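Student: Send me a single protein entry containing the residue sequence and its fold in token form, directly below this note:

Tutor:
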Amino acid sequence: MRFFYLLSFSVLAFTSCVKKKAPAEQAGQSDHGNTVLFEFIDFESVSDGRVDSTKGVAGKICGKLNDQIEYGYGFERQIGKLSSYKSIEEVNINFNCFMDKKTDGDVFVFSVEDTTAKKSIYWEAKGITPEKTGTWSPININFKINKEHLNPAYIIKLYPWNKGKNTYYYDDLSFSFEQAKK
């Protein structure tokens, strides 16, 4: 009997520690099978000054931006370390957002940087505009990637920028790198 309880507890403990994958439609995963790389951040295991424990949508922790935190948690990687990087044509960013008010200064940034020359090769920002304020709303942002920016030595960065100093929260952040449809 003791063995049964020990086994049950071990299975329960293991399954509670495994990072659960969000449903495809919620996490923004591609439904056409052209995903080269997919990353999902639920913030539960993130511990830095850009997270908050008062408003999480699916757990206790979420990302937070305010007048003190200008740049949010995102994605940064050397392009050559992305799987099948030569075939990537776009990146889809999906997350849930909680804002009390919308401002023009709430944007998500896509940048490509040449670390050797220490300069930005490409920079683009798109507005974060939830359908509703005062509640969690889904956000979907898409960036097209020009083939000339796919140098394996370059760094790709994707992150929320709070240039308007608005306070807002974001959670269940996903990045889906897509290749051309075959």
